[in-house]
């Protein structure tokens, strides 16, 4: 819903594709953290993933 509202009037951005990519990215990082147990603190992973998604969304909402 956020994507549809913020992309209104900004051309033909593929909202469904963007949402799918976000969901798959977060899902894959979460599953990989559990299964692979990388030598990275989970809080760092969460913070970096949040920063990545937030930066993308912030950039999309600029005029």
Overview of this structure, please?
This protein is elongated. The chain has helices at residues 2-7, 15-36, 42-60. The two termini are 19 Å apart. It is mostly helical. The longest helix has 22 residues, at 15-36. The mean pLDDT is 85. The chain has three helices and no strands. α2 (15-36) runs antiparallel to α3. It has one domain (14-60).
Q: Residue-averaged pLDDT, rounded?
A: 85
Cα-to-Cα separation, first versus last residue: 19 Å
**Beta-strand residue fraction:** under 5%
What is the total domain count? 1
The percentage helix is over 70%
How many helices? The count is: 3
Instruction: Provide the low-confidence segments as ranges.
Output: none
Radius of gyration: 14 Å
Largest sheet: none
Global geometry: elongated
How many beta-strand runs? 0
Give the structural class.
mainly alpha
Give the helices and strands as they follow along the chain. Answer: HHH
């Amino acid at each position: 819903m956020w994507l549809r509202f913020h992309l209104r009037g900004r051309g033909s951005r593929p909202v469904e594709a963007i949402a799918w990519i976000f969901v798959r990215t977060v899902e894959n990082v979460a599953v990989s953290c559990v299964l692979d147990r990388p030598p990275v603190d989970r809080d760092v992973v969460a913070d970096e993933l949040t920063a990545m998604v937030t930066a993308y969304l912030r950039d999309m909402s600029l005029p």
